[in-house]
Specification:
Layout: H1 8-17, E1 20-22, E2 27-32, E3 65-71, E4 82-88, E5 91-96, E6 99-104, E7 112-118, E8 123-129, E9 132-137, E10 162-167, E11 175-181, E12 188-192, E13 200-206, E14 235-240, E15 248-251, H2 269-281, E16 285-286, E17 293-294, H3 297-310, H4 316-327, E18 331-334, E19 343-349, H5 365-378, E20 386-392
Antiparallel strand pairs: 1-2, 2-3, 4-5, 5-6, 6-7, 8-9, 9-10, 10-11, 12-13, 13-14, 14-15, 16-17, 18-19, 19-20
Helix pairs in contact: 4-5
């Protein structure tokens, strides 16, 4: 992308207002709140602490930016990851695991959807060159026909793993004109033009998935010790600008050729210390001696929660709520049914400083406990009347 591909509106947005940010579920346009170049000290306490979660109703905190707009995606793209942005004139082209969205951002305060093109294939990183749009596809469920039914077979000639090419001369009617299949798909890519070649543009493709079977795409080899292996290399695709449908791989450089595996050794002192500290905290550590590894909570928590519930426990979330309230001399009342969807009540001082009411959605005990602990700590030592608030347990 260069300045020549951007409209005056877009250039003004980037140069004067600041970045166009990509959020997990929405298109967010934000602007720098000060042009002085001095950011100042960040707010204290950190306003992000205790924020409630949510898909489109999450609580928010902002610093050194001015929120210009926030636009939720069309229904067809809700629940799928937004991956990348490209720009063409007054349009922001947003890649999504479910396809591509074309946003009209001629008015940054009110972006509108111009086109939604459903064409699943993670991760849909996007690039624009002239009137051509390039889209990465790596997931094994992507289809050549852009269908949403996926591909169930281990070997299928309906599968797309590589680069999709669209003609967007008419942005309102993108035309899918070609694709280039690769052995490992395209996780992401970079578009380059050779300074002495005005007839072609080149796509450097990075694939990080498994190697597809040779029965599906001829020449794909997964063996790491084979000099023709699809591992440890990138693909270079040449796209003739006058006939982009003739795009093809012209080079597969093994950019990691000649790397030497380091000698094996035991854990470094810092690694050993980290394992010992984790074990002392009660974290889950697998293995012994030099093979010891600290397991992430996202792997161990689901198993521990299941064990806890099978034994009739209430879980860490409710325990956090209890401890937070008891520490600040607040009251907690729990009903007899502690299964999924049960309710619990707590009495919380009213008029607290720096505490925002949590939204009704996604009030899990863990989030509530963290919120209460931070909220009450900020107001420690102050006298307030008590009021009753009802929360819904959802975990």
């Amino acid at each position: 992308m260069n300045d020549r591909s951007l409209s005056p509106t877009m250039l003004k947005l980037i140069r004067r207002l600041g970045p166009l940010a990509l959020a997990a579920g929405v298109l967010v346009v934000s602007a720098c709140s000060s042009s002085s170049g001095s950011f100042g000290a960040p707010p204290s306490p950190d306003p992000r602490i205790g924020l409630g979660a949510g898909l489109f109703d999450a609580e928010e905190a902002i610093w050194n930016l001015a929120w210009v707009s926030q636009s939720p995606p069309p229904e067809s793209f809700v629940g799928s990851t937004n991956s990348d942005l490209a720009f063409l004139g007054d349009y922001a082209i947003q890649g999504n695991y479910n396809g591509v969205m074309f946003w009209d951002i001629s008015d940054p305060a009110r972006p509108t959807i111009a086109v939604e093109f459903v064409c699943p294939a993670s991760q849909s990183d996007v690039s624009v060159y002239g009137n051509l749009l390039f889209v990465s596809g790596e997931g094994t469920s992507g289809r050549l026909d852009c269908g949403s039914e996926g591909v169930a077979e281990a070997v299928s000639h309906d599968r797309l793993r590589g680069i999709r090419i669209f003609d967007i001369t008419d942005v309102q009617n993108p035309e899918y004109i070609a694709n280039v299949q690769t052995c490992r798909g395209s996780h992401t890519h970079t578009v380059l033009k050779h300074p002495s070649d005005d007839d072609n543009v080149y796509i450097y493709v990075s694939g990080s998935s498994s190697v597809r079977p040779a029965e599906e795409l001829e020449g794909c080899i997964a063996a790491g010790d084979d000099p023709s292996s699809a591992l440890f290399r990138i693909e270079v695709i040449r796209v003739p600008l006058d006939s982009p449908e003739d795009a093809a791989i012209v080079s597969s450089p093994r950019i990691f050729q000649g790397l030497v595996e380091p000698e094996s050794h035991g854990q470094a002192p810092g690694d050993i210390r980290m394992v010992e500290e984790a074990r002392a905290r009660g974290d889950f550590v697998s293995g012994v001696g030099e093979d010891a590894r600290v397991m992430s909570r996202r792997f161990t928590q689901p198993q521990l929660l299941r064990i806890m519930r099978e034994r009739g426990g209430t879980g860490l979330g409710l325990s956090i709520v209890k401890q937070a309230l008891q520490h600040h001399n607040c009251e907690l009342q729990v009903n007899s049914a502690l299964g999924k969807g049960s309710r619990f009540w707590f009495r919380l001082p009213a008029g607290l400083v720096g505490c925002r009411r949590m939204p009704r959605k996604r009030r899990t005990p863990s989030l509530v406990g963290t919120y209460l602990s931070n909220c009450l700590r900020r107001n420690q030592g102050q006298e307030h009347r008590l009021e009753e608030t009802e929360l819904h347990r959802t975990d």
